[in-house]
Design goal:
With 148 residues, the chain is α+β, with helices and mostly antiparallel strands. Helix content is 40%, strand content 20%. Bound molecules: zinc ion.
Length: 148
Protein backbone atom coordinates (compact mmCIF):
# COMPACT_ATOMS: atom_id res chain seq x y z
CA UNK A 1 0.00 0.00 0.00
CA UNK A 2 1.45 3.29 -1.09
CA UNK A 3 1.50 5.90 1.63
CA UNK A 4 0.92 9.05 -0.41
CA UNK A 5 1.42 11.38 2.50
CA UNK A 6 4.88 10.14 3.39
CA UNK A 7 5.77 9.90 -0.31
CA UNK A 8 4.71 13.53 -0.66
CA UNK A 9 6.99 14.55 2.22
CA UNK A 10 9.85 12.50 0.80
CA UNK A 11 9.61 13.94 -2.71
CA UNK A 12 9.32 17.53 -1.47
CA UNK A 13 12.37 17.13 0.77
CA UNK A 14 14.39 15.39 -1.95
CA UNK A 15 13.66 17.89 -4.73
CA UNK A 16 14.07 20.84 -2.40
CA UNK A 17 17.46 19.62 -1.23
CA UNK A 18 18.63 18.72 -4.74
CA UNK A 19 16.57 20.62 -7.31
CA UNK A 20 16.83 19.10 -10.80
CA UNK A 21 17.67 21.35 -13.74
CA UNK A 22 18.56 24.24 -11.45
CA UNK A 23 20.34 27.15 -13.13
CA UNK A 24 19.96 29.22 -16.27
CA UNK A 25 20.15 28.16 -19.90
CA UNK A 26 22.78 29.94 -22.04
CA UNK A 27 20.45 30.42 -25.01
CA UNK A 28 16.80 30.13 -24.01
CA UNK A 29 14.16 30.52 -26.72
CA UNK A 30 11.45 31.04 -24.13
CA UNK A 31 11.64 32.67 -20.72
CA UNK A 32 9.34 33.82 -17.95
CA UNK A 33 9.53 35.15 -14.44
CA UNK A 34 6.94 34.32 -11.82
CA UNK A 35 6.15 35.57 -8.35
CA UNK A 36 3.95 34.34 -5.56
CA UNK A 37 3.67 37.36 -3.24
CA UNK A 38 1.64 35.36 -0.73
CA UNK A 39 4.64 33.22 0.14
CA UNK A 40 7.54 35.18 -1.37
CA UNK A 41 8.37 32.58 -4.01
CA UNK A 42 10.18 33.84 -7.12
CA UNK A 43 11.18 31.81 -10.16
CA UNK A 44 13.05 32.33 -13.42
CA UNK A 45 12.19 29.74 -16.03
CA UNK A 46 14.20 29.14 -19.20
CA UNK A 47 13.30 26.83 -22.07
CA UNK A 48 15.13 25.88 -25.24
CA UNK A 49 12.50 24.76 -27.72
CA UNK A 50 13.48 23.41 -31.09
CA UNK A 51 11.09 22.04 -33.68
CA UNK A 52 8.21 22.27 -31.17
CA UNK A 53 10.04 20.08 -28.64
CA UNK A 54 11.40 21.11 -25.25
CA UNK A 55 15.10 20.26 -25.62
CA UNK A 56 16.19 21.89 -22.39
CA UNK A 57 14.47 23.50 -19.44
CA UNK A 58 15.86 24.98 -16.25
CA UNK A 59 14.87 27.26 -13.42
CA UNK A 60 16.36 29.26 -10.62
CA UNK A 61 15.08 31.63 -8.00
CA UNK A 62 14.20 31.33 -4.37
CA UNK A 63 11.15 30.01 -2.68
CA UNK A 64 9.71 27.62 -0.17
CA UNK A 65 10.22 23.87 -0.35
CA UNK A 66 6.95 23.30 -2.18
CA UNK A 67 7.60 25.85 -4.93
CA UNK A 68 11.15 24.59 -5.45
CA UNK A 69 10.12 20.93 -5.48
CA UNK A 70 7.25 21.64 -7.85
CA UNK A 71 9.50 23.52 -10.28
CA UNK A 72 12.09 20.75 -10.09
CA UNK A 73 9.52 18.02 -10.80
CA UNK A 74 8.05 20.09 -13.61
CA UNK A 75 11.39 20.49 -15.38
CA UNK A 76 12.01 16.75 -15.05
CA UNK A 77 8.70 15.76 -16.60
CA UNK A 78 8.72 18.36 -19.40
CA UNK A 79 12.07 17.58 -20.97
CA UNK A 80 11.47 16.05 -24.38
CA UNK A 81 7.77 16.95 -24.41
CA UNK A 82 6.14 18.95 -27.19
CA UNK A 83 4.70 22.37 -26.46
CA UNK A 84 1.18 20.90 -26.77
CA UNK A 85 1.98 18.11 -24.32
CA UNK A 86 3.39 20.69 -21.90
CA UNK A 87 0.23 22.82 -22.16
CA UNK A 88 -1.91 19.74 -21.61
CA UNK A 89 0.04 18.83 -18.47
CA UNK A 90 -0.34 22.40 -17.21
CA UNK A 91 -4.12 22.14 -17.64
CA UNK A 92 -4.35 18.71 -16.00
CA UNK A 93 -2.16 19.66 -13.06
CA UNK A 94 -3.89 23.01 -12.56
CA UNK A 95 -7.36 21.43 -12.70
CA UNK A 96 -6.36 18.66 -10.31
CA UNK A 97 -4.99 21.11 -7.73
CA UNK A 98 -7.20 24.15 -8.12
CA UNK A 99 -10.49 22.65 -9.28
CA UNK A 100 -10.06 19.27 -7.59
CA UNK A 101 -10.88 17.61 -10.89
CA UNK A 102 -8.66 15.81 -13.36
CA UNK A 103 -9.56 14.22 -16.69
CA UNK A 104 -6.47 12.02 -16.81
CA UNK A 105 -4.80 11.51 -13.44
CA UNK A 106 -2.45 8.84 -14.86
CA UNK A 107 -0.96 11.34 -17.29
CA UNK A 108 0.37 13.33 -14.34
CA UNK A 109 2.80 10.54 -13.48
CA UNK A 110 5.11 11.61 -10.68
CA UNK A 111 3.28 14.92 -10.39
CA UNK A 112 0.47 13.09 -8.62
CA UNK A 113 2.60 13.14 -5.49
CA UNK A 114 2.30 16.93 -5.42
CA UNK A 115 -1.47 16.70 -5.17
CA UNK A 116 -0.83 16.11 -1.45
CA UNK A 117 -0.56 19.90 -1.25
CA UNK A 118 -4.35 20.03 -1.47
CA UNK A 119 -4.32 19.36 2.28
CA UNK A 120 -2.71 22.79 2.63
CA UNK A 121 -4.82 25.16 0.52
CA UNK A 122 -2.64 28.18 1.33
CA UNK A 123 0.26 26.45 -0.43
CA UNK A 124 -1.46 25.58 -3.69
CA UNK A 125 -0.08 28.72 -5.33
CA UNK A 126 3.41 27.62 -4.32
CA UNK A 127 2.85 24.39 -6.27
CA UNK A 128 1.34 26.06 -9.35
CA UNK A 129 3.80 28.97 -9.63
CA UNK A 130 6.29 27.18 -11.90
CA UNK A 131 3.42 26.03 -14.11
CA UNK A 132 2.05 29.53 -14.48
CA UNK A 133 5.57 30.62 -15.45
CA UNK A 134 5.65 27.80 -18.02
CA UNK A 135 2.33 28.91 -19.47
CA UNK A 136 3.59 32.50 -19.72
CA UNK A 137 6.87 31.39 -21.30
CA UNK A 138 5.15 29.29 -23.95
CA UNK A 139 2.98 32.28 -24.83
CA UNK A 140 5.90 34.73 -24.76
CA UNK A 141 4.27 36.85 -22.09
CA UNK A 142 6.63 39.76 -21.51
CA UNK A 143 5.47 40.88 -18.07
CA UNK A 144 6.51 38.90 -15.00
CA UNK A 145 3.51 36.90 -13.88
CA UNK A 146 2.10 36.92 -10.38
CA UNK A 147 -0.15 34.42 -8.69
CA UNK A 148 -2.05 37.34 -7.11
ZN1 LIG B 1 5.72 29.04 -1.31
Amino acid sequence: MLDLRSLYQEVIVDHNRQPRNFGRLPHPTHHAEGFNPLCGDAINLDLAIDNNTIDAISFDGHGCAISTASASLMTEILKGKTMQEAEKLFQLFHDALVNDHCDDIEALGKLQVLLGVKDYPARIKCATLAWHALHAALHHTQQPISTE
